Amino acid sequence: MFAERLTCDIVVRSKSGEPATSEQLEEGEKNLCDYEDQFAVPASDGTPYQLVIKYPKRSPKSRAYEYSGDQLATNAFTPVLVEYNLFTLTAEHVVYDLDTGTISATGNVEIVNQLGERQNTASMTFEIRNGEAVPVH
């Protein structure tokens, strides 16, 4: 479902048309080629959990990242995949807010919680903290 990209040749230029800085090039590669983000979201007791987001498309926003699924092959839509501890989520669209630590998912959302229970919904928001994805109501 989440195949590696075989190639990714891109040219990144700054808004002025000059060659991109190393930071701009790195951000361009993450948006167009990288296919995976990892964020350290440790628990309050220091347990070193990682939030992993796999995606076909990514757009940086102010203090947030917006991820989208994509039609990568005929009859094969690849959603966004979110993993945190024993929680997984797939959706057509996901926004991770860096300031609030929330994941907002929309479009064919499928959730598998820490107990292995599945839930399908149109949209859902979770706060990522202390090794758990806690639903926000």
What report would you give on this structure?
With 137 residues, this protein is mainly beta. It has a single domain, classed as Lipopolysaccharide (LPS) transport protein A like domain (lipopolysaccharide transport protein A fold, Sandwich). It has one helix spanning 22-34; strands at residues 36-40, 50-54, 57-61, 64-68, 70-73, 76-78, 80-84, 87-91, 93-97, 102-112, 118-129, 132-135. Strands 1, 2, 3, 4, 7, 8, 9, 10, 11 and 12 form a 10-stranded antiparallel beta sheet that branches. The longest helix is centred in the N-terminal third of the chain and has 13 residues, at 22-34. The two termini are 30 Å apart. The relative contact order is 0.15.
Whole-number tally of structural domains: 1
Radius of gyration over all CA atoms, rounded: 16 Å
- Give the termini distance in whole angstroms: 30 Å
The helix/strand order is HEEEEEEEEEEEE
Can you tell me the overall shape? globular
**Poorly predicted regions:** none
CATH-derived topology: lipopolysaccharide transport protein A fold
Helical segment count:
1
Secondary-structure blueprint:
Layout: H1 22-34, E1 36-40, E2 50-54, E3 57-61, E4 64-68, E5 70-73, E6 76-78, E7 80-84, E8 87-91, E9 93-97, E10 102-112, E11 118-129, E12 132-135
Antiparallel strand pairs: 1-2, 2-7, 3-4, 4-9, 5-6, 7-8, 8-10, 9-10, 10-11, 11-12
